[in-house]
Specification:
Helix content is 23%, strand content 43%. It is α+β, with helices and mostly antiparallel strands and 336 residues long.
Length: 336
Amino acid sequence: MGKLHTWTLIACISCVSVAEAANVVVESVSVEKSKQQIKAVGNAEAIHSVTLYPAVGDRVTAVYFKPGDNVAKGDLLLELDSRRQKAALIEAEITLKDADRTMKRLEESHARGAVPQSDLDDAKTLYELAKVQLMQAKTEREDREVRAPFSGVMGLTDVEVGDRITTQTAIATIDDISELYINFNAPEAAITVLKQKSSVEVVPWLGDKAYTAKVAELDSRINAQTRTLRTKAKLDNNAQQFMPGMSFRVHINILGEELAVVPEAAMMWGAAGPYVWKSVDKKATRVDVKIEQRLAGRLLVSGGLNEGDLLVTEGVQRLRPNQELNFINEVQLAKE
């Protein structure tokens, strides 16, 4: 009876040793940096934005814009009554021309010795004063006009032709929205990444599409109470789909260490935790791993996996340690 048991045991061992090779699908292990995403709330601000006021007060004679108009730098937006200033400008031009003629005539007379140097000097002084008066007249005339300081979009206005306004009257706002600043408070943990002038993802509060905004400006200090840093990221808005004041969700991605990428289908679970199978000399080798991050369809793991190792991705359910493997897919044998 004892001999029968012995022969049975030997037969079982023989069956194991001659077990057929397992048909599996393998792929080369790649690595990917882990990501930590920090979220914040941001508000959009025009890249340039001002409220327009007149330089002087008087009656409005013309308004050349409507709310929502796109205007170019230097465009005339509003004009005040300038009849006196136009007359003063013409008078200054006449005075300058007369002073110029007088100075040239005295220069010719002085060259012939007909007039003293003092008369010529007085004429030159009057000429220079006339140039100053003309400059003042031009400035006073220009003060009667309100022009766009930069290209942008005009806001609402309550000013109409015939209104008498003062230097304290807000005419309208103008915003350059070709680009927007997304203002947000970044947590202290993200400062290293932001200092590298990296990019952040911004998502409109009422949307789900992500856009890339480049970090443009950082405050000089961290808020001691909130432990955050005021940050501005610049978002392209040439299509003008966004407006100043809109809210955005801000996602800051922080890259960590490089980890092995494992498809979800290749992951197995045992009493000691997760593990995978890899091929070493075309034999199954169990590798215990630790899941560091879950991504769409894949896992980032730490453990005994290196870049280029052959990972078994299909046919893992019945594998045993040191079992022969038969690759049923074409694979670049980097390690074999």
